[in-house]
Design brief:
The structure holds two protein chains of two kinds. Chain A is an alpha+beta fold. Chain A is built from 16 helices and 26 strands. Classes of the chains: A alpha+beta, B alpha/beta.
Chain lengths: 587, 475
């Protein structure tokens, strides 16, 4: 149920039968499955999750301390919906789309009180509406009727809601309006406002899903270079604690070349969300230099906020993402972490005493995960535009063990897998993405883009890097037994090259300004410089130069410093020359 | 207030009673046994006609004739600034023989979640005087940084050392001892001996007068342990956000807390999660750990150092695992280091402080801090790896470069990490010590340090000295 509309009780009021944590049962309540209800004298928000005879089971989105049997339960008669309209960017919401800044003001406290409601978008604020159709034009559901400048970066397209019939425009307004005033009236009497409501558990309709062909450039070398994700693609980042899931997610949220970013902090740390709230307004959008918040919508359900709202927050997030996709934008959604969402399902399921599946998770875990990731994709929208939702979910497997159900069920659906590795994190190799375990199934369909926009030989170079790293992996096993010096010289050289690949190419420092974002051109340049070193060094070796002399040249360590150069183009050009010169002078 | 004599079932820590009025979830209950003893409990589940009560002080002595009173409110902690210097039991009653506590206010112990929008991101460096923490895993004000330990390791000594030495350097000398921390100590299921150790240290150093101690000992009822940390944190929040104190909360031992949760879960016949711990343990722990931080427009802060002993030293056990997913890093105690006599035996490799990057650097600690710590991590990790190899092929078979890394790893443990529990090192001392060690490696190996910083700090003589020493030994 939307917080914006009048909360009239449409059906019979029930009363509470029992309370156990976030699960409340009620009797005499006339409600449908998934209806939103208000529980108790304080009116706590909840959702119907089971109906058995006269007993209705409700998951409550707020703390239930002090709630007693006998208190009333009111039904709103509507499922959980979000308010969609201008004002969602540069906003921070809890799991049921209550703006946290408004809550702070209303509660007058830094602590989240309960029973306080707030609409998802400001109902009073007036927006400048510019029409894009005229009276007499015929409009279909999904069609754009006008534009509102929502932030400096984003024009918000006002659309005919998908559940309207559509028809001929009778009248259209221009000027300042709030989101509840009709800006377009159709001849059949339907009125279009800047605000729509949409049930979160239902996907917004489109014409068709297409194969994504364009990469979501992330500015992270290991991702763009080795394991790219497409616009409209899906990815999972599993990893044990401390391996850098959140830093990777934050980097993606900051630098991915999406038009809109929806960041869902699901059951994670409060300070992490605060970091986003404090950092993002000051960071520049790499595309246009505006504030990053101008394209970002945040949803924060921290780990200590009520568990039922954690279950709903990913749906709230993806519904907002789909709405901006309908306008023709490329949207990237980050969910950190989907494991907390799955655990919320498990917690609720266990309170319902459902028969547990694997490791106590409900049997419908796989279905819910698949349903969620299927809402991502590259779509043709109802209004003919193309838009995409890319979904990137962090997974927090217990004990870092990837064989657990959430990781496994996620991997069955997503096409990109970025495996974080505690071992790499321990030696401060960041991003700690394991290059042997990770994969991207988008590589082939994205290669043409990279070849056209970055470099002809993009995929060959990538293959070289992968081969070298693979070889290193095998050699390392031998080194563990006999020591490096026992290897033949060419293998020692391979190890040396692979080390530069790891340190100079794969590692990237998210805390240094010049290195936190790496454009694909620079990614390519670093790789090609290392390959230059490789080729020249092997030539020298063939010419009989001892390995010690080859590795001792003083230009080689500079390979690790390309990443932190402001003027990397000049640096790379000079370094390539220097490497060639120094190596050739050896023979 | 109505009294019921309607207990139908007593099972472990749980009591079921029939009622004829609606009872609020989480409400406090008093149960009087026929022998006149009063026990307190909390409503775990409330249904029309019957409630399940979790009894804090154990159910011994409760029979069907015991009378049950519902107090009509949830559990509250009486808070006042006068609590500083007091010792309380696990339920918040004074046990130091001091005067009765006159509360300013009574606060609900189930703290409401802090609105993330109202938080302020923690970035004030806390100098603990411990190099392995300050240099490599910096603690900041408002952070929650647990100590992962094992039975028999000196985690308590480390916690005491931190509590004793923690200061925020920049504020020193501003008077009002603004940089001193108020310490809240929440003990859950620790032994009397451990408790004495803590108390003696508090009294010896005079820390007691700025501390509030909550003691639930090993022979106190297990269920009480689920309340103790909440009382401690409620007090901490009051002192921090109402009275402007910087509060350091030490909770020990979280493993005992989780055992108590499991006990209650089992008694309620809940579907168990991993290793028998309840499925909601993540949420439950988060409700404790997330009560740390700073708020916009408030002076105080709550910094948490929970201690937990990992069963079997296994960090994938549900308790450390779930904790690690909530807290902002962890300090890992290490058994081999302990047996080598390194004090404190902190293994920096699996340790981590997530808030470090924003709390260090120019203006906060020193410009070279991040690079030095990064480089030492990488070098120590490399040295550690080589140790395995040495066991197989011997030192002679390794290159000169590898030998330097091995020496570095040894020196790192014996000079940098090792400092004893009474040494208080400033951050400058810690970083200079870092440079001493890094300078034993060739300059070209320092690929994580900015070139300018190398010029500024690298000790040419140290490297040369190292080389000479080696040449001599090679002869």
């Amino acid at each position: 149920m939307s917080q914006a509309s009048e909360t009239e009780t449409t059906d019979g009021t029930g009363r509470i039968k029992s309370v156990s944590g976030p699960v409340v049962t009620a009797v005499d309540l006339d409600a449908r499955m998934n209806d939103v209800v208000y529980v108790g004298d304080e009116g706590l928000m909840g959702e119907v999750i089971e109906i058995e005879g006269d007993v209705t089971t409700i998951q409550v989105y707020e703390e239930t301390s002090g709630i007693a049997p006998g208190e009333p339960v009111e039904n709103t008669g509507e499922p959980l919906t979000v308010d969609l309209g201008p004002g969602m960017l540069d906003a921070i919401y809890d799991g049921v789309q209550r703006p946290l800044d408004v809550l702070e003001e209303k509660m007058g406290s830094a602590f989240l009180d309960r029973g306080v409601d707030a609409p998802g978008i400001d109902l009073e604020k007036e927006w400048e509406f510019t029409p894009e159709v005229e009276a007499g034009d015929s409009v279909e559901p999904g069609d754009v009727v006008g534009v509102v400048p929502e932030t400096v970066t984003i024009d918000h397209k006002v659309m005919v809601p998908p559940d309207y019939e559509g028809g001929v425009v009778e009248s259209i307004e221009e000027g300042s309006f709030n989101v509840e005033e009709a800006v377009v009236t159709l001849e059949n009497g339907e009125e279009v406002t800047m605000r729509q409501e949409w049930p979160v558990r239902e996907k917004r309709p489109t014409v068709e899903k297409r194969t994504p062909r364009e990469p979501l450039v992330s500015g992270q070398r290991i991702l763009d270079g080795l394991f790219p994700i497409a616009k409209g693609g899906t990815a999972a980042i599993p990893g044990p604690f401390g391996s850098g899931k959140t830093v990777t997610q934050h980097s993606l949220a900051k630098f991915a070349d999406a038009d809109i970013v929806v960041y869902v902090g699901c059951g994670e740390r409060g300070n992490e969300m605060t970091e986003v709230i404090e950092d993002f307004p000051e960071l520049e959008d790499p595309k246009n230099g505006n504030s990053l918040m101008a394209r970002t919508s945040l949803i924060a359900n921290t780990s200590n906020m009520p568990v039922a709202a954690r279950e709903s927050c990913v749906y709230t997030g993806i519904t907002i993402a789909e709405y901006y996709r309908d306008m023709g934008y490329d949207v990237a959604l980050m969910a950190d972490s989907t494991s907390r969402w799955a655990e919320a399902m498990r917690e609720i399921s266990s309170r319902l005493e459902e028969m547990p599946g694997e490791e106590g998770y409900p049997a419908y875990l796989a279905a819910r995960l698949a349903e969620f990731y299927e809402r991502a994709g590259y779509f043709e929208n109802l209004n003919g535009t193309e838009g995409s939702v890319s979904a990137i979910g962090a997974v927090s497997p217990p004990g870092g063990d990837f064989s657990e159900p959430v990781t496994q069920n996620t991997l069955r659906i997503v096409k990109t897998f970025w495996a974080l590795d505690a071992d790499l994190a321990e030696r401060r190799h960041f991003p700690a993405i394991n290059w042997n375990e990770s994969y991207s199934l988008y590589q082939e369909q994205l290669d043409p883009w990279f070849q056209e926009n970055v470099a002809e030989d993009w995929s060959e170079r990538r293959q070289w890097a992968v081969d070298t790293l693979d070889e290193e992996g095998e050699l390392q096993e031998i080194v563990q037994l006999v020591g490096k010096d026992a290897l033949p010289e060419d293998q020692q050289l391979t190890l040396e090259v692979a080390r530069y690949l790891r340190e100079g190419y794969l590692q990237q420092n998210a805390f240094i300004d010049v290195d936190m974002y790496c454009p694909p051109e620079k990614t390519y340049a670093i790789l090609s410089t290392i390959q230059t070193y490789n080729d020249e060094a092997f030539d020298a070796l063939d010419a009989g130069v001892p390995i010690e002399d080859i590795t001792a040249i003083d230009a080689a360590p500079k390979l690790n410093r390309i990443a932190t150069q402001e003027d990397w183009e000049t640096y790379v050009a000079e370094l390539k020359e220097e490497l060639t010169e120094q190596l050739r002078s050896l023979y | 207030m109505k009294e019921y004599k309607t207990i139908t079932e007593v099972s472990g820590p749980l009591v079921y009673a029939e009622v004829d009025e609606p009872i609020g979830y989480d409400e406090i209950v008093e149960i009087e046994t026929p022998s006149g003893e009063t026990k307190r409990g909390q409503v775990l589940e409330s249904e029309e006609g019957i409630v399940a009560i979790q009894v804090f002080e154990g159910t011994t002595g409760i029979d069907r004739n015991a009378s049950v009173r519902f107090l009509g409110e949830t559990l509250k902690m009486p808070v006042t600034e006068d609590l500083l210097g007091r010792v309380l039991d696990g339920s918040g009653n004074p046990i130091d023989g001091g005067p009765e506590i006159v509360p300013d206010e009574r606060r609900d112990i189930v703290g409401a979640a802090i609105n993330p929008y109202s938080r302020e991101y923690p970035e004030d460096f806390i100098q603990t005087g411990v190099s392995a923490i300050d240099g490599m895993n910096t603690l900041v004000r408002g952070q929650k940084l647990p100590i992962f330990s094992g039975s028999g390791l000196p985690h308590n000594d480390l916690a005491l050392q931190i509590a004793r030495q923690a200061t925020v350097p920049e504020e020193e000398g501003e008077g009002d001892d603004g940089s001193e921390f108020a310490v809240i100590f929440g003990a859950m299921g620790i032994t009397q001996e451990e408790a004495n150790e803590f108390m003696e240290d508090f009294e010896r150093t005079g820390a007691l007068e700025r501390s509030v101690v909550f003691m639930n000992l090993a022979d106190d009822p297990a269920v009480e342990r689920t309340v103790t940390p909440r009382l401690a944190l409620t007090t901490a929040e009051y002192l921090a956000f109402d009275k402007g104190y910087h509060v350091l909360v030490v909770l020990t031992d979280m493993t005992n807390y989780c055992e108590a949760l499991r006990e209650i879960g089992a008694a309620r016949e809940e579907v168990p999660g991993r290793r028998g711990y309840p499925g909601y343990m993540y949420t439950d722990l988060a409700q404790l750990y997330e009560r740390a931080g700073r708020l916009k427009d408030r002076d105080g802060s709550v910094t948490q150092i929970p201690i937990l002993t990992m069963p079997g030293d296994d960090d994938t056990h549900p308790i450390p695992d779930l904790t690690g997913y909530i807290t902002e890093g962890q300090i890992m105690m290490d058994r081999p280091l302990h047996s080598q006599g390194v004090q404190p035996p902190v293994n920096v490799l699996p340790s981590l402080s997530r808030l470090m990057d924003d709390g260090i650097g120019e203006g906060l600690t020193r410009a070279d801090h991040a690079d030095v710590s990064d480089q030492m991590y990488a070098a120590y990790a490399e040295g550690e790896d080589l140790r395995d190899l040495v066991n197989i092929v011997g030192r002679e078979a390794l290159s000169e470069r590898d030998n330097k890394y091995l020496d570095f790893a040894d020196a790192f443990e014996s000079q940098f990490v090792e400092q004893g529990f009474d040494t208080d090192r400033t951050i400058d001392e810690t970083l200079e010590l870092g440079w001493d060690l890094l300078s034993t490696l060739p300059k070209t190996e320092l690929n994580r340090v900015d070139e300018e910083l190398i010029e500024e700090h690298y000790r040419e003589d140290a490297a040369a000295a190292g080389d000479e020493a080696e040449e001599v030994s090679a002869d």
